[in-house]
Amino acid sequence: MMQDGHLPIGVFDSGVGGLTVVRSLQAALPHESFIYLGDTARVPYGTKSPATVVRYSLNNARFLLSRGIKMLVVACNTASAQSIPALQQELPIPVVGMIDPGARAALAATHSGAIGVIGTYGTVESGAYQKAIAELRTGLRVDAEPCPLLVPLAEEGWLSGDVPRMVIREYLQRLQSRFPEADVLVMGCTHYPLFRDLLAETTRDLFGHPVELVDSGVAAAREVAYLLDRRNLKAPAGKEGKLTVMVTDKSRIDVVGQRFLGRPLGEIQAVDIPV
Amino acid sequence: MMQDGHLPIGVFDSGVGGLTVVRSLQAALPHESFIYLGDTARVPYGTKSPATVVRYSLNNARFLLSRGIKMLVVACNTASAQSIPALQQELPIPVVGMIDPGARAALAATHSGAIGVIGTYGTVESGAYQKAIAELRTGLRVDAEPCPLLVPLAEEGWLSGDVPRMVIREYLQRLQSRFPEADVLVMGCTHYPLFRDLLAETTRDLFGHPVELVDSGVAAAREVAYLLDRRNLKAPAGKEGKLTVMVTDKSRIDVVGQRFLGRPLGEIQAVDIPV
Predict the structure, then answer these.
(1) Judging by DSSP bridges, how do beta strands A141-146 and B114-119 pair with one another?
(2) Could you say which of A7, A19, A61, A76 is catalytic?
(3) Quick check: B155 and A52 CB within 8 A?
């Protein structure tokens, strides 16, 4: 029987955004191989209800499990916020989402104890970051603002210029007016790291003090590295890992995906997943 | 057996945008009843591939047919552009999409013979409006520009102000620079009539001559009225028709839907459709 260490890590996302998480995973774990499943036929998850998101997450996880994976990373923050308990209950392998790692990174970064979170409607309304942070330490304050237009802007490649600047300013103004003491901002959606420069510039301007940006994908990659080590699941060193990209709908994936991964995606497989 | 005329007209859309079409249908046909199915669990269609859109359209049509309808209106332009032949082949009832009525209305409106179309990627890349217009009369010129950010802007309610103005200007500038002689602009997506004022203002400004906006939903409502009459399928006069709204995911539907229908939606049923 194949040693588990040789198996790839499964990563699923609602679409292509999770490729920013793959980028962080590959940077932290160059010997690991990854199977990425983007549910592009049903994207986005961030505007859909928890019941629908849990159903889709289970479909995706079962599909990846059937391909042989040693660990599952839920790259989509919305799916992480709503589906981790259901996934952990069903799957016989470790499941890592974005919320707990992001919450821990936010705690490590804050001085004022006031943590802002931006995400989709689904992530913000779930209260998942708020709960995860509250469980880490009492007395912290968290406020979250949905920023739904940032996903389509990122997918269209409108990453700089007046339109994204005005949209980001509008959302962060809402947060700042309620929560001026925040000194950390969790980028609680895979798409948001593409706006890092604009987010940094706008928070500096609006809050008048440094606001540290937390990338949940980077934090999750550290968590994956730690778990692989602790559970003795690391891939053997010496050989570079591979990335297999699968999507449920191939439309525009090569154009858009490259923006998120930071390099060409190579071959992309279109798959049907049982629903 | 119930007379067909008493049955409702089925309308499906990828989400809530098709409620603008329902609004036009109700205005033209006050005695007709409608069953509206919004596939909000899989919205949007406009960025997905033709194969996926045809599959989803057939799912939706079969579901509505099973509820008893006398005619099917495909309110989504993307679904109309890609699925009408498949739907007409399978369904034993008349099927009306957005493309042919919109094309005829554009032909009636143009003086210069130069017709601009705006829509989703799916609609524009299908070439459906271009083909439908070419079949009506030779020698017409058609150019189309995808405007993908208008759907999320409309769903978020950013209908006026600097952000939608700048986004619309960017898209229409691209069209104008290739096609300055256009004197008609087909709003080839259910969401675009919500930007009618901004579109009118921007075309006036950019093109320097009047550009008539064509609403495919309004044109389709005229087509439905004509077909009901010709096929003797009209509902009996005397009583106001009803609207039943069903969605595959209930998230945010009441907030967003009202914007498209122009009044509260009443009771909304969440349904599972066989896929």
Answers:
(1) unpaired
(2) A76
(3) no
CB contacts, 8 Å: B151 with chain A: 152
The whole model's pTM is what?
A: 0.95
Closest in A52, A163, A170 to B167, CB measured: A163
Q: What's the topology of domain B99-217? A: Rossmann fold (3.40.50)
Strands (E), B101-183: 114-119, 141-146
Distance from CA of A158 to the nearest CA of B (A): 10
ipTM: 0.94
CATH 3.40.50.1860 domain locations along chain A: 4-97+218-270, 99-217
Is B189 catalytic? The answer is yes
| Cβ of residue A231 closer than 8 Å to a chain B Cβ | no
Axis crossing angle, helix A216-230 with helix A99-109, rounded to the nearest 10: 110
Q: Which amino acid is at A267?
A: E
Question: How does pLDDT run along chain B (275 residues), one tens digit per residue?
Answer: 456 899 999 999 999 999 999 999 999 999 999 999 999 999 999 999 999 999 999 999 999 999 999 999 999 999 999 999 999 999 999 999 999 999 999 999 999 999 999 999 999 999 999 999 999 999 999 999 999 999 999 999 999 999 999 999 999 999 999 999 999 999 999 999 999 999 999 999 999 999 999 999 999 999 999 999 999 999 999 899 999 999 999 988 888 999 999 999 989 999 999 98
CA distance A108 to chain B (A): 34
In Å, how far from its chain's centre is CA B44? Answer: 13
Cβ contacts of B43 on chain A, cutoff 8 Å: 47
B124, B152 in Cβ contact below 8 A? no
A163–B170: do the CB atoms touch at under 8 Å?
yes
- Among the options A189, A235, A247, A256, which is catalytic? A189
Please name which of B187, B167, B176 lies closest in space to residue B120, comparing C-alpha atoms: B187
Domain B4-97+218-270 CATH (choose: 3.40.50.1860, 3.40.1440.10, 1.10.260.40, 3.20.20.20):
3.40.50.1860
